[in-house]
Amino acid sequence: MSPEFLDRFSRGNTICHRLPVRLKIVLTLAAILAAALIPISAWPVHGCLACVLFAAHSVAEIPVAYLVRRVGFVMPLVCGLAFAVPLGDGLANALPAAAAIAVRSVLSLLAGLWLVNVTPFDRLLAGLQRCGMPRGIAAMLAFMYRYTFVVFDELAKMRAARRARTFSSRGAWREWSAAAQLLGRLLIRSLDRAERIHSAMCARGWDGRIRALE
Amino acid sequence: MHIADGILSTDVCVAAGAAAGGALALSWRNLAATARLRTVPLTGMMASLVFAAQMVNFPLFGLPASGHILGGLLAAVMLGPWAGCLALALVLFVQMALFSDGGWLAYGANVLNMGVVGSLGGYVVYASIRRFVGGPRGVLVGSVIAAWVSVLAGASLFCIEFAASHLADGFNMPRVFLLMAAYHSLIGVGEALITGMIVSCVLTQRPELIYAPDDSSASWLGAGRFAGAGLVLALAVAAFLAPFASDAADGLETVAQAAQFDQLAQESSGLNPFGYSVPLPWSGDRAGFWSKASISLAGVLGTLVVFVMAHLFARLFAKPRGAAAEGNHVA
Q1: Domain residue spans of chain A
Q2: Which residues of B touch A151 (CB under 8 A)?
Q3: pLDDT (0 to 100) of residue B63
Q4: Average pLDDT in the B171-184 region?
Q5: Is residue B21 part of a domain?
Q6: What's the mean pLDDT when you consider all of chain B?
Q7: Which among A13, A25, A144, A209 has most CB atoms closer than 10 A?
Q8: Could you give the number of structural domains in chain B?
Q9: Contacts by A190-196 with C-beta closer than 8 Å and gap 24+?
């Protein structure tokens, strides 16, 4: 898996990328809170917020097509909840509540996307740690981020090996058991790898702290 | 099942966040008692694994869609309840931050529904079953049943959060419960099946990797286990009983609708093709009772299916395969 897969645009060099990390975290949380707390009857405020977010994205040089794809990925579920449920009571009654859900979701989504696309994940973790995230949690997150790529590569290799040995699908049941065995093997391998890494870390004087180069 | 921002109200998000934060802090403290240094690589790796496992698709029988495992109970069975809960919280954080799957404000609610109920809640059910059914058989039966129960309990908790967020909006809560219970009894059967298959795979190849509680943590689990298991079971059962229990609310609604019936009827016939009911295949004139009854029937059937599954897993996979297993993991 290529490293660009997870946070694609986070290593750019625009003014948004150069802002201090903690400022970016605070700004994003403020935008999300504003979207959640301002009543939907004050919709011009939400409009302004949307304009500001779009401006921030364009300054950070994040393509619109990417944003549309990401929002489109999450929207079906949100719209499903927002519209399918209140429809039972008649559209006119349900519309304000449904619109509130949809507008708030899109705005919060845009704010969150901006944060991760202007901040590399390791910097984000360092910033969150300085905002009060416990050290142990941050260490685990850093470890997880590092080894996600390894586990994904291993999964891809095992799937390729399986495909190379499987010529036709033999029904859904076979596919289920094959996929479950794949995951079982991957689980065993990953836990063994974690034990090996832990021994190696202890051999190098691991004391529970992850040290980051600033 | 990831909740985006805007679906729950802010105060519900804050309350759920406080509960989830408390559970995570408790998990971290209980881990500190055992071996914290070992926890970081193991939990981190488990989180990446659950993350990767959610990318493996399982084709749904006869449907052009596919599902994936949620993995809360799997993590708890492998690493124990505390590390499992933390691993799920990590997975949810990365999914939120990097995939924008689930909102920042709703993070606490997501951790509560999937991490705390999925791992801690699932584990108390699993540990209670293991107390009665010993050996590898108990591991399999326990994980299959607990996986199903934990998915339903999580869905039920979501409904409660959703209802608390939209009390004033006049949403039709019984229907939310109905839909969630119907979908999640299916999702839960899939989760139970996949979890059972993976656990049986690990059991035949490396049984020593399965988490076995030592005596220090057993005391807590012994005291609170049955209470916790009862709570989780009650949540799961609530998903099926809620449509009936809310008949009174339905009655109130009917009165309210009768009061302004003309107006509403015009609107709904003009704009809403489904009328007043969710478009269930069996909805006819007297669909109200039968749709509720069929949800509960689905619950009973799902329970039966899961118990049969647990029995089959115990029969098929729990046999000791000493020699074969020894040879396997060297390769």
Answers
A1: 3-127, 134-203
A2: 45, 48-49, 51-52
A3: 60
A4: 71
A5: yes
A6: 73
A7: A144
A8: 1
A9: A190/A147, A190/A151, A190/A154, A190/B45, A190/B46, A190/B48, A190/B49, A191/B42, A191/B45, A191/B46, A191/B78, A191/B209, A193/A147, A193/A150, A193/B45, A194/B41, A194/B42, A194/B44, A194/B45, A194/B46, A195/B41, A195/B42
ipTM: 0.87
Nearest to A102 by CA among B11, B5, B199: B5
Q: Tell me, what CATH number does B153's domain have?
A: 1.10.1760.20
Chain A residues with beta carbon closer than 8 angstroms to that of B273: none
Nearest-angstrom CA–CA distance, B232 and B36: 28
User: What is the least distance, in Å, from the CA of B114 to any CA of chain A?
Assistant: 17
Contact by Cβ (8 Å): B73, B123: yes
- Mind listing the pLDDT tens digit for each residue in B27-50? 888 886 666 677 888 889 999 999
Tokens of A147: 């080894």
Rg (CA), chain A: 22
What span, in angstroms and rounded, lies between the C-alpha atoms of B259 and B255? 6
Q: Residue A150: list chain B partners with CB under 8 A.
A: 48
A145 neighbors A59 (Cβ within 8 angstroms):
no
Residue B252 lies in a domain: no
Contact criterion met (CB < 8 Å) for A172 and B61: yes
For A86, the closest chain B residue by CA position comes to B171
Q: Are B109 and B13 in contact (CB under 8 A)?
A: yes
Residue A184: closest CA among chain B residues belongs to which residue?
B198
Chain B CB contacts of A147 under 8 Å are: 44-45, 48
pLDDT digits (tens, 9 = 90+) for B239-262: 666 655 544 444 334 444 444 433
Considering only CA atoms, give the Rg of chain B.
21
Residue B290 has pLDDT above 80, yes or no: no
- Give the whole-angstrom CA distance, residue B281 versus residue B258: 26
Contact between A78 and B4 using a beta-carbon 8 Å cutoff: yes
A186/B103 touch (CB, cutoff 8 Å), yes or no: no
For residue B67, give the H/E element and its range: strand B66-67
Mutate to test the interface with B, among A89, A169, A174, A196 (most CBs of B within 10 A): A89
If you measure CA to CA, which chain A residue comes closest to B44?
A: A144
Note down the domain range covering B33. 10-245+303-328
Residue at B46 is within a domain = yes
B256 in a domain, yes or no? no
Residue to mutate among B8, B36, B45, B199, with most A CBs inside 10 A, is B45
Element holding B307 (H helix, E strand): helix B287-317
**Closest CB from B58, B199, B276 relative to A176:** B58
Percent above pLDDT 90 for chain B: 14
Residue B4 CA neighbour count, 13 Å, CB half: 31
B286/chain A closest Cα distance in angstroms: 16
Residue for token pair 């999937």:
B114
Q: Tally A–B CB contacts below 8 A.
A: 248
Mapping DSSP to helix (H, G, I), strand (E, B) and coil, where does residue B227 land?
A: helix
